[in-house]
Design brief:
amino-acid biosynthesis, alpha/beta, 230 residues, 6 helices, Rossmann fold, 5-stranded mixed barrel
């Protein structure tokens, strides 16, 4: 653990961003989070940090983060939750720290931009370095986010690798959160727990089996972060 980085983050306010309540349930129960806001998004707070549930999808996640930034004084955001692996070296229940986030659903190549690049925005969005303080995992990867549910190798080839062939995991929120943070000049990192792997079997079936296990693992990670805060 990087002690100097931990010291710098100890007095900072963190908000944990989840897509689904099921991912956050163990963390809410075991870290004394109390509901402080029901609409338009669920927001929880304990004596150290905030926690929110965005709902699934790019628009939901970006809107939720924008609301939080406008209402609360938060220093660091951590997007944490489940994701799908498209790489044979990243397996179910592995913990992965995101390096770069790429958007799907974007094609303005006719104006000289890359696939996945929003006009006048970066091609990819880099994670903030503050998460390195906690040595969460040695595994790092690039992530692809879109509103398309990727559940086959054919969709990976069609949508994901068209953007960048270095991408190893996929979800439906992370890159939108990173883009919002980039625009509003906020620090954000992401930690993903692998719930399913493309190509092994139906990832809809795997997801329902491993979601609860992922929730407990997420709780362990957040407890580690919380214990190092004042």
């Amino acid at each position: 653990m990087n002690i100097e980085l931990v010291k710098k983050s100890m007095n900072k306010t963190i908000c944990y961003i989840f897509a689904m309540f099921e991912e956050a349930e163990a963390t809410i129960i075991n870290n004394n989070f109390v509901l402080i806001e029901k609409e338009p998004f669920l927001v929880y707070k304990n004596n150290k940090s905030y926690l929110t549930i965005t709902g699934i999808g790019l628009i939901n996640s970006a809107t939720c983060l924008s609301c939080l930034i406008s209402k609360y004084d938060i220093d660091y955001f951590i997007n944490i939750g489940t994701a799908c692996s498209i790489d044979k070296e990243i397996n179910v229940l592995d913990v992965v720290v995101i390096d770069n986030a790429y958007l799907g659903n974007v094609d303005v190549t006719g104006f000289g931009y890359k696939i996945g690049q929003v006009p006048k925005m970066p091609e990819k969005y880099k994670s903030s370095s503050f998460i390195e303080a906690y040595n969460i995992s040695k595994k790092q990867a690039n992530i692809f986010s879109s509103d398309i549910f990727i559940n086959s190798t054919e969709k990976v080839e069609k949508y994901v690798y068209e953007v960048n062939d270095s991408i190893k995991i996929i979800d439906m929120e992370c890159a939108a959160l990173f883009q919002t943070s980039f625009i509003l000049k906020k620090n954000i990192s992401s930690i993903k727990i692998i719930s399913d792997v493309i190509g092994s079997k139906s990832n809809e079936e795997e997801f329902s089996i491993f979601l609860k296990k992922c929730s407990y693992k997420i709780n362990e990670i957040i407890r580690k972060i919380e214990q190092n805060k004042k």
